[in-house]
Specification:
Blueprint: H1 2-23, E1 37-40, E2 43-47, H2 52-55, E3 63-70, E4 73-80, E5 84-89, H3 100-104, E6 111-116, H4 134-147, E7 153-157, H5 161-170, E8 176-181, H6 197-202, H7 207-215, H8 234-245, H9 252-259, H10 269-279, E9 286-291, H11 301-307, E10 312-316, H12 327-347
Parallel strand pairs: 5-6, 5-7, 7-8, 8-9, 9-10
Antiparallel strand pairs: 1-2, 2-3, 3-4, 4-6
């Protein structure tokens, strides 16, 4: 009896080891392939035909293309409109489609709206989990902006789009003329602290994979982070989830949660300090649009105000993905920043949007 018990325990241990190895595997690089070409103001790129469920969410004026930022690493870009370039960066675990409602509120004859998708999400290249490091995302996104040959931009960012976008722009500081900042973080950690209980759980090996990749679908829980959960119904969640879950590598959402620094010793901390230092040098029009019902980043508004003490602040009842709830408020902020930029360039004096 004892021998059978030991044998059973041994077999169970082997199964657990094999299972742990399987769920914590790094994943592989999966690079999308387009068809034909698309020409935009910055050049000609590989066209990427969108599946029907995405095409139904946007109109035919949108351009969809891929930019190879490194050999084998491509970022998917949605673009619509012509005029002043506006660079809109989403975060985890969404994609460029997050800004479709904001784009619908802005005049397309005045703005060129550029909506890239971070590597690992949407229709961009999927990479092993270990490659989701903040310095990699800054390099990839910086290369994208360089290839688009932009001379000036208004920047709009939320979630990981905040530090990734600002960090990429820090590599070419002459580009940034104005910004709209939403629920995000731009400061380096000063102490050991978890952003949320979910992020703390995500940091635990095996447990994180079991919970966020096997038990709970992050995409099915997006509505929980909203002021109005009805703002992300299943068909909207699918716009963000299907490109990842159907790709063969769905490691990005958990890996990006683990990118969030929880102490000064975290691998992202040095880049976050660089970003914090960079925003401290900015002298451009900035507006803040904040979702106060965001269960993760809602309490961070005062910190963001301290980063931009002269910025106009619009507080809303939205949650984390406020682009789905208050696109009109975001678009209005973009318009005001643009007008301040135009006024500044006309007078050759620093602009203040207040």
């Amino acid at each position: 009896m004892k021998r059978k018990l030991l044998l059973g325990v041994g077999i169970l241990a082997i199964v657990l080891v094999i299972g742990a190895f399987f769920i914590t595997r790094d994943g592989e690089t999966i690079t999308p392939e387009g068809s034909g070409t698309v020409t935009v103001a910055g050049g000609t790129f590989e066209a990427f035909p969108l599946p029907d469920y995405v095409s139904a969410a946007i109109d035919s004026d949108y351009k969809s293309y891929l930019v190879e930022v490194e050999p084998g690493i491509k970022m998917h870009v949605l673009e619509v409109g012509e005029g002043y370039p506006v660079y809109l960066q989403h975060g985890n675990p969404t994609n460029g489609l997050l800004y479709r409602k904001v784009a619908a509120e802005l005049p397309r004859d005045r703005f060129r709206l550029i909506m890239p998708t971070l590597v690992g999400l949407g229709f961009s290249t999927k990479v092993p989990a270990s490659e989701h490091q903040l310095d990699n995302h800054l390099r990839w996104t910086g290369a994208l902006l360089d290839q688009l040959q932009l001379e000036e931009v208004i920047y709009v960012g939320q979630d990981w789009g905040g530090p990734v976008g600002m960090g990429a722009l820090a590599q070419s500081p002459e580009l940034l003329k104005g910004a709209v900042i939403m629920n995000t973080g731009l400061n380096a950690p000063r102490e050991q602290r978890d952003l949320s209980s979910a992020h703390a759980t995500a940091q635990t090996p095996i447990v994180g994979e079991l919970l966020f990749e096997r038990v709970v679908s992050i995409f099915d829980r997006l509505a929980d982070a909203q002021g109005d959960p009805a703002s992300i119904p299943p068909d909207v969640s699918a716009l963000y989830g299907r490109p990842v879950t159907e790709s063969g590598n769905f490691k990005a959402p958990l890996a990006m949660m683990r990118m969030v620094p929880d102490s000064p010793d975290h691998p992202s901390a040095n880049e976050m300090q660089m970003i914090e230092d960079y925003i401290g040098t900015l002298d451009v029009p900035v507006e803040i649009v904040w979702g106060t019902k965001d269960p993760i980043l809602g309490p961070g508004l005062e910190t963001m105000k301290a980063n931009f003490p002269t910025a106009r602040v619009t507080e809303t009842e939205a949650g984390h993905f406020l682009q789905e709830e208050v696109p009109g408020d975001i678009a209005a902020a973009v318009m005001r920043v643009y007008e301040a930029v135009e006024a500044s360039e006309g007078s050759d004096e620093p602009a203040n949007p207040n």
